[in-house]
Amino acid sequence: MSAVPPHTSPQSAWTIERRSALLAAVPFFASLPPAVIGELAALFHAKTIPRGDFVFHEGQPAETVHIAATGRLKIIRTAADGRQIVLRLIQPGEPFGVAGGWGAVTYPASARALDHAVVLQLPAREFSRYLHRHPALALAVLNDLAARLREAEARILDAETANVEARIARALLRLVGPVTPGGTAQSVVLSRQDLADLTGTTLSTASRVLSARHRRGIVLALRERVTILDAAALAVLAGEG
Questions:
Q1: What is the 3-state secondary structure (H, E, C) of 90-136?
Q2: What integer pLDDT is reported at residue 6 of this predicted model?
Q3: Neighbour count for residue 21 (Cβ, 10 Å)
C-alpha cells in the first residue's frame, strides 16, 4: 500500500475503491461478487491506531469486525499471573476481532498495534447480516477458523513436545509462509520480545537462539526484523527437514 500523505485522514485516504481492492484480496471476501464487495467497502470505515495503542480489550463488547489495512498488530491474552501471551500476529490484509460477527458477546482477547496502523472496521451486525446472505462468505469464515484451530493445536503440541530452539524455528517458518528453495529470502518484522511471547520463552532465550542462528548464517536477526537466509537449515532445526 502507498504511504498516506501527511495531514490526510484515513477516511479520505481509504476511498471506497481502495477499500474494495483490499477486501477483494482478503480470503474472507475474495469469492464474493464485485458488487457485493463494493457494498461492504461502503460500510467499512478506516481508523488510525498509533503504535502501542489497543484496538480493543479482552472482555470488551464485540461490536466491530476489523481488517488490518496497514501496519501489524498482535492478539494477546492476559494470564492469571499477569503475563501477556501473544496468540497471533496480524499482518496487513488479515481480519481479526471477528468474534462478534458470529454472535460472541465480548472479545476473547485484546488487539494491540505493533506499528502505526490503519484498521478498517465494520459493525458486527452488518458482518453477521452478510454471513447469512452469502454462503460463500460463511464458508470462507469456517475455513479461516479451521486454519486457526490447526495453528493453535500445532503451537500447543510444540509447547508440550519441542525444545525452545525448535519452537522458535517453527514459529519463524509459519510467519513467513512457504519458502521456495533458492527463492528470495523471506523476512518478518518482529521484535525479539514478540518472538519470545509467541513461543512461550523469555527475551534472553529468544535473543540467544536468534544470535546463534545469525552467526551460523541461517537468519539475519536485526532489532525489529528477522530474515530467513537458509530455510532448509531452519527446517532441520524445527524438526521438519
A1: ECCCCEECCHHHHCCCECCCEEEECCCEEEEEEEHHHHHHHHHHCHH
A2: 52
A3: 13
pLDDT at 10: 64
Q: Say which residue, 105 or 147, is predicted with more confidence.
A: 105
Q: Note the pLDDT tens digit of each residue in 19-75.
A: 999 999 998 899 999 999 999 999 999 999 999 999 999 999 999 999 999 998 999
HSE of 40, CA atoms in CB hemisphere, 13 A: 33
Q: Are 111 and 75 in contact (CB under 8 A)?
A: yes
Residue 241: predicted pLDDT = 56
Distance of CA 26 to the CA centre of its chain: 12
pLDDT digits (tens, 9 = 90+) for 200-214: 888 999 999 999 999
Q: Considering the entire predicted model, what is its pTM? A: 0.77
At 16, the amino acid letter reads I
- Separation between Cα atoms, residue 149 and residue 147, nearest integer Å: 5
